[in-house]
Every structure is written in structure tokens, then in C-alpha cells.
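Ticket #4471: structure export looks truncated?
Reporter: QA, pipeline team
Priority: medium

Steps to reproduce: submit the single chain below to the structure queue and open the exported record.
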Amino acid sequence: MHAEAQPDPTEFMRETDPGTVIYGFAADGDDLHIELLVRETSDEIARIPAAPEIQIRAGFREIDGVFVVAVLFRFRSDGPVRVSFWNYHAPVEDPADGNLFDHLAGSGTELIVKLFGDSGRVERLLPFQHPLGTFFRQAIRRIAQLPAWDDDAFREAVWALLDECPEPLALWESMGGA
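Actual output as written to the record:
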């Protein structure tokens, strides 16, 4: 019996705009970890130091009863801010999102950042221990008090947040530290 083939993200990442962040789970045997697939320009990837101090912030906003979690990254102190919006109530249709929050709420969870360059291929791999366990435990508790929302309501809430903070740097500054 063969394992199901995993989709190759190369073409998708090559056609995606720099700054795009996609998350997902990956497994090495029994070890389940979270990967962040980040599309950058090859020039930006080359500017990231050999041993980067990855900066990460997370925050949440409740917009019209929808809880939007924003996770923001920087791979060098003067580099661009990258943002990903995460939806917890998606477990109704996609249990991976809810499991993501549960997994990140655990202590000592490793994130693996895969930086995709202009060719669409991985140019850098950056594993690090994320500091967001407490944040995600609090987010899960807060969200549990709210009625569920659908994906359309989540998209509308994200657009409202982007209207408020159209640039990732403004969102970074408004979120403070996690």
C-alpha cells in the first residue's frame, strides 16, 4: 500500500504574490508539526541572515461576532512584515484549522518556515520554537464563548480588519507582542 501523494506546491507558489503565507500540517513518522509556506522574492530570501532571529506576533480582533486571529512574522528586523489570518470556527467544515489552534496551544511547539523564492521552490528552511502557546490557549477560550460563524463572515471580518490596517506594518504595530 502506498501513501497518498502530497501535492507539489512549486507551481502554485511561483504564481503567488510575494508575502503570501499558507499554513498546514506535516508529519515525520509520529511527529506532527506545522509548516508555514511563505512566498518571498529570491532577493528578499538572500537578505535574511544565516541565523535569523525570527520575530513573531499574534493578536485577535472580534469584528461583528467573528474572531480573527492574525499571525505576523518578520525574518529580519528591517524586513517586510508577513501576515496570515487564521479562522478557528472552520472546524465545522475543515477540522485542520481547529487542530492547528490546539496544536499551537501546546508548549514547545515547533514551526517550520519554508521560504519559496521566484522559481516556486523552497530556498530556505527555518525551524523555530514558537512563543505563542499562551496566546492560542487564550484565543481558544475566548472563541468558545462565541457562536460559530461561516467562512463568508470570516472573509468579511478580514476585509474589515484590512480596511482598518491596510499595510502589514500597521497591523504589526497595532498587535504589539504576543
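Status: closed, not a bug. The export was complete when the record was re-opened. Leaving a note from the reviewer for reference: The first strand starts at residue 21 and ends at 28.
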